[in-house]
Amino acid sequence: MALYFNIIIPFKRFVDELQVLINKYDIHLYVEKWNADKGFYYEHIEYGQDFLFVSDQDYRTFFFSSKFVAVHQGKLSSGNKNNKIAVPKEKSFYDDNLSDYCIEGEGGREDDRNIEIIRLRIISKKPDKKIEKFYDAFQRLLKKNDELKRGLYLGNYFDDKVYFCETTKNKLADFSNKESQYRK
Q: What is the pLDDT of residues 132-180, one digit of tens each?
């Protein structure tokens, strides 16, 4: 059974809120992209940089991982942080040998008028203890944040499990469908 957590918050603020936990649990951030020329490819994202990938046309999803995975020419590889050259081995964070260490994240796109929900889930039925502790800790941290509210409507359905920060922007369930808006 997958564990889900949904939040509408600017991506940079989301990561800033989690920075202490990211450091404590030694969590790595990866982004999955796709285009017709390259197919699926990955990037390892450093936390100090801008998170422009969420506005990139090729952006598909992101992953938090408690296991470092080298990226070589856009492909996931075996190796460690000091191993600059690695032989591509793993294909995807959904593979059995990586999924236990990962949280999948979708969404987070934003423009001047819209912000998309961030959907998070632990991929594995039996996750690594470190990624599970990180997931539980960041949920507790965000739920205790007084600036975050809980519960929005999507159509006629009230979703009491979505958290959000107040904004004048349209809160979207899907950035490609501007009609799929959450409301109070």
A: 999 999 999 988 999 999 999 998 999 988 999 999 999 999 888 888 9
The pTM is what? Answer: 0.87
- CA 61, CA 59: separation in Å to the nearest integer? 6
Structure tokens that stand for 161 in this block: 């499990």
Place of tokens 């992101």: 62
Closest CA to 8 of 147, 141, 119: 119
**Residue 72's closest CA among 86, 61, 59, 60?**
86
Q: What angle do CA 157, 158, 163 make, to 5 degrees?
A: 130
Give dist(CA 27, CA 100) in Å, integer. 13
Rounded CA-CA distance 162/137 in Å is 17
CB 164 within 8 A of CB 7: yes
